[in-house]
Amino acid sequence: MTGQGHSASGSSAWSTVFRHVRYENLVAGVSGGVLSNLALHPLDLVKIRFAVSDGLELRPKYNGILHCLTTIWKLDGLRGLYQGVTPNVWGAGLSWGLYFFLDLFLGYLEHHTVPFSLWRMNC
Prior knowledge:
mainly alpha, 4 helices, about 0% strand, disordered N terminus
């Protein structure tokens, strides 16, 4: 058996598996993770501001969610509401993209090529 014959059989096995892979799922997961994070990041920032508000005079005091949002808006503008958004967007996009991609991919492998489930073993 030559190296070419072995390569061809290996590539046909992978092409059979990857034939059912939909990259649209990866794109959908990434875009959903990014957009949801961009929409909800100001509320996450408010949550963090409340968590670190320990009553010291150095930190501003907030009376509620709207007061916190308007104070941040008045002091720092739109940039203030989206402080620290970059790592969150990368993390959410990557995690949701891989989740959508691998969940369907591993689900296909589980039902079509593996005699028993290595991913979801029921003991």
